[in-house]
Amino acid sequence: MNMNDIIIKKRDGGVLSKEEIQYFVTGYTKGEIPDYQASALLMAIYFKGMDKEETYALTTAMRDSGDIVDLSAIKGVKVDKHSTGGVGDKTTLIVGPMAAACGVPIAKMSGRGLGFTGGTVDKMESIPGFKTTLEEQEFMDLVNKNGISVIGQTGSIAPADKKIYALRDVTGTVENLSLITSSVMSKKLASGSDAIVLDVKCGDGAFMENLEEARQLGQLMVEIGNSDGKRTIAVITDMDQPLGRAVGNSLEVIEAIETLKGNGPADITRLSETLAGIMVYAGGKADSPEQGHEMAKESLRNGSALEKMRLFIQGQGGDPAILEDTTLFPQHTFAVEVTSPSDGFIEKIRARQVGVASQHAGAGRATKDDVIDMAAGIYLNKKVGDAVLEGELLATVYGNDEAKAAAAAKDLEAAYEISDTKTEPRPLIKEIIG
Ligand code: URA
C-alpha cells in the first residue's frame, strides 16, 4: 500500500477500504506520512466526501490510535455530552450537575478551546483552586462518591485526532461532515461512556451554518455512535446569537451558577433542561425524554443540581464559596461599554463576531500557547428581539488590558444589527435525532 495511490483513489472519487484508512491514520500519527500527503488526502476527502462505512473506519482507526478509557468501576449508565461548539456555550457546567442530581453518573473528559473562546476545561480553571487533572482512580472515586467529575482530556485519547485536527485547522479542511464526525466521535468512543448526547449547533458561529447540514452531521454522528454500541442522541440547536448573556471564562461560570440557582437567562435554562432531560433518559433514569425533562427541571427547582455543583467543585479542590461570592473569581480592571447608535429593536447579534471580540479581549487563545485572561469577556445586556434606545447599553467588555478591551468593544459594535421592526429570536431547539 502506498499513500500516493490512496490520495489518487480519493481524488478520483473512489471508496477507500478499511485497510487504506487504517494505513493513513497509523502512518500519519507515527510521523511516517508527511504533512503534505496527509493534507492532500484531507482535501480530497473534503471535496469527494466519504460514505458511512469509510467514516466509521476513520473514526475507529482514530479511536484506536490511543488509550480507550475503562469506566466499568463506576456504577450505572455513564452518559457523556458533547457540543460541536458555540459562543457562550457553558451548558456542560449546568447539565452535568443537573443529570447527576437525577442519578446519572457524569464522568466526563472535556477539552480546551479549539476556536475563539475557552473550552469547558478553561472555564473550570477560573474557579480558584479547581484541579482539572486528576489520577484516573481519583476521578472514578469522585464519580462514585459525588455522582460527577469532569477533567481535562489527556493527550493519550485519540492522538490521531489531535494531529489531524491541527492540520485541518490550517488547510481549510475543518468543515466536512465525515471529518468532523470522525474527530468528535473518535474522542467520545474512546472516553468510556455508555451513551452520548450530542448538541449539534447550527447557525452563525457554528461549523454548520444551515439546518440541512446540521441535520446531516447529527444523523451521521448518531449512526456512528450506534454502530459502536453506544446509545447516541443528537439535538440540533440554534447558534445564530450567543447562548445566554455571558461570553468568557469566569463570566460563563457565574452564569452557569445563576442558572443552577434558577436565575439564568431563558435560552440557556431551556437548552439545559432539554439536554439534561435527554441525558437522564439515555441514562435509564426516565422512561421518556419528557419525563427526563421534568426531572431535570425539578433538579433546578429543589436545589439538588446546585448541591451537585457544590460537591463537584469541592471534590476537585475548588472553593465552593464562589457559589455565594463571585468576587472570589479573578477580577477585571477595565470595563468598556458599547451603546446603541439608534432607537429600534435588536435584529441580529452575530455569534462569530462576538466570539472574535471575546478572544480579542483576552478570553480565548489565538495560538495554543496564549495565556487566557480568566476575567476577560463580554456581557450582552441586549439580545435579539429586545427594544433599544439610542445611547442605551448594548453590551460590556471586561478585561485586564485596556487596549485589548477597547479593540474588542469595536468588534462587538459590528456584531449588533438594529432595525425598526421587532424580530422574534429563532427557535432554540430545532430537532432531536435518535
Ligand atoms: N470539534 C471537534 O472536536 N472536531 C471537529 O472537527 C469539529 C469540532
From TrEMBL:
UniProt keyword list: Glycosyltransferase, Transferase
InterPro entries registered for this protein in UniProt: Glycosyl_Trfase_fam3, Glycosyl_Trfase_fam3_N_dom, Glycosyl_Trfase_fam3_N_dom_sf, Nuc_phospho_transferase, PYNP-like_C_sf, PYNP_C, Pyrmidine_PPas_bac/euk, Pyrmidine_PPase_CS
Gene3D superfamilies: Nucleoside phosphorylase/phosphoribosyltransferase catalytic domain, Pyrimidine nucleoside phosphorylase-like, C-terminal domain, Transferase, Pyrimidine Nucleoside Phosphorylase, Chain C
Record field: catalytic activity: 2'-deoxyuridine + phosphate = 2-deoxy-alpha-D-ribose 1-phosphate + uracil; uridine + phosphate = alpha-D-ribose 1-phosphate + uracil; thymidine + phosphate = 2-deoxy-alpha-D-ribose 1-phosphate + thymine
Binding partners and assembly: Homodimer.
Functional summary from the UniProt entry: Catalyzes phosphorolysis of the pyrimidine nucleosides uridine, thymidine and 2'-deoxyuridine with the formation of the corresponding pyrimidine base and ribose-1-phosphate.
The family this protein is said to belong to: Belongs to the thymidine/pyrimidine-nucleoside phosphorylase family.
Name the record gives this protein: Pyrimidine-nucleoside phosphorylase
